[in-house]
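Feature request, filed as a ticket because there's no other form

It would be nice if the structure record came with a short human-readable summary line next to the tokens. Right now we just get the raw output. Example of a typical job, pasted below so the devs can see what we mean:
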Amino acid sequence: MKDALQQFGFSALVVDDEPGMRAILNKALSKKLTQVETASSLEEAEALRKRNHFDLLIVDINLPGRSGIDWHEAFDDDERRSDIIFMTGYAELETAIKALRAGASDFILKPFNLEQMLQSVQRCLDKRMIERKNIALQRDVARSFPIDIIGEAPKTLAMREVISRLAPSPAAVLIEGESGTGKELVARALHGMSGRSGPFVPLNCGAIAPELLESELFGHVSGAFTGARKNKDGLFRVADKGTLFLDEIGEMPLSMQASLLRTLEQKTIRPVGAEREVSVDVRIVAATNRNLHDEVGEGRFRKDLFYRLNVLSVELPPLRERVDDIGLLLNHFSDVLARDLGLKPVVWSEHELAAMRYYDWPGNIRELKNTVERAILLGKPDLRHWQGDSLLSISDNLDEHQTQLDQERHEEGYPLVWPLKEVERAHIEKVVGAHEGNKSAAARQLGVARKTLERKFKEWLDE
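Raw output as currently delivered:
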């Protein structure tokens, strides 16, 4: 169970006022789940739940000051996304009925056998695992349709313009960019806007064993080799009148590069073991994170194939060169993933957005998306201690970063010589003025509490 459950990032919160019970369940569940938290009171549990999403709550009913059932019943509908198992040392039928009516997945009497609890946990998380797998399948289906390229940064707009110009052409396209920049997304967009009637068929050239790649691409006839018991259509036949996306083209063996070049020039394929060639109408879109110019120079990639693939090209900028898109991407992924997972979207503060603008994002958009998904499932990371090449905490160097933000966003706005305090005051007063003095509306736009605005205005009056 451990590998499967940890793969899906399951988490649990144990609430019990008995230290021994918390320790036992923490030790047992930590071996199986990605995250396990414990709380000795409902107040502590509430604080943890506000910061993190938990797939499973294991709660003692009889807690000091308030019943665990009453606590759960106070959740609103959006908060009742966690499964809950109630524990109690009192075998009262009325309490059990009340717990089940409150939406409990199980009701376990103390003292209990640990295996009994683990089986109950397993049933809850098996159900969630099926839900997550269904979500993954739905995402795969959704990927078969054209997807918009999110962003308004200058390089993103230029990339979209290039894609729209290249899409109608039947010529091959080479997409270059670092890992995680969205090469398959661009390939799907090219296909979606091409007007071609056939399917979009992706293949990662680095994921197929070299000895199987020829059969995978061109197909084979029965008896062509050991194990070929029946005819098989290759991906060129599957993608007929559509688009074949060859990802990581730089990983393709030289022997296969020659066969691919012949197919591109003659628009025919010969299945392994066949005597006749078959005509195909396939548009090739290839992608690589390698520098194919260098690969050609080192003799690892055929020069003639490179020129044949590089008829049209799209170069994808890394995320660090389109930082103005980070806020849009965060909101997009947060909304989409939260909807898919059936959880609440993550809301990022201005400090967090600013910090993300100054992080290098070596994994590019893929890393950003994974960060959002993890935040939805397990809670937002503490930027001050986030792993990687130091995702900065703006609090440490706020003046320096604010000056840089001023230079980038307000070239004709606040004078760069102003201290941060004056910039903050001018901006707050401008926002309050735009809302005609409505401090509640201004506070919502600024992402702060109204009390914070009141306190700042009082400080300015006292100066």
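Something like this underneath would help us a lot:
Residues 70 and 320 are 48 Å apart (CA to CA).
DSSP finds 20 helices and 16 strands in the chain.
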